[in-house]
Amino acid sequence: MNPLAHRPFLKMNGIGNEIVVLDLRGSGLAVRPQDARAIARGEGLAYDQLMVLGDPHQADADAFMTIFNNDGSESASCGNGTRCVAWALTRDTDRDRLLLETSAGPLDISRNGDRNFTVDMGPPRLGWRDIPLRDPVDDTRAVAVPGATPAIQALGPFSAASMGNPHAIFWVKDVAGVDVAGLGPQLEHHPLFPARANISFAEIVSRDHIRLRVWERGAGITQACGSAACATLVCAARNGFTGRSATVSLPGGDLVITWRDDDHVLMTGDVELEFEGRFDPALFTEATV
Fold it and tell me: Can you give the pTM of this predicted structure?
């Protein structure tokens, strides 16, 4: 029997970003890519990200967090999922701060209310090597897609940033009219992005308001993507479209993103618990290798 059978989990969402939280601290267990794909096929368990908690590496951290997309690939960052984890670890306590480790570095989280949290997502990475892009560019505020189809050419240049994972943001006049399902997978897998990329389409409403739709690397269309909201605000501010703080409206709800003067990006938003349960052993019958 798969050792994950009967393990407890939480099914949550962060403004519509579908999240499963799995706490494996103290168990010695790990999740394989095939396990992550199997969990995503479970009834009611279709997720955008699976947040797996393991034992921390440093004494002052609460957990080491490994993040899986629903295709079994790993992500180094998920702001909405991080807020869900923060709720899971603080719901029966009076704690208002947490420190979580990830492969991209530590994340400091503060609780503002019962279900509202702020995550310090750290500084953005803006150099072409750090994002990464395949080709050298002098300015990641405006990057052309080489060999683009007419539909992609019509979008114009994109802005690029990394928030622990790579993001490409296209600036559009009407985000509701963008063919996210058609353009997203083409761009995610474009050779310009050697690690693939999260693809965002952003409409500037005002100096402090952005509308956003996201094709998420390894997950597809999502109701929300916290790291994409962070990357979009940073790129909007760098281009002079907004100030350093704005409300980013995604299909699932709003996030408040602030790019502080110390270069750290803060993300604030709500979370929701949908249900909790234990994994059915039958989930893992095809996840044996």
Answer: 0.92
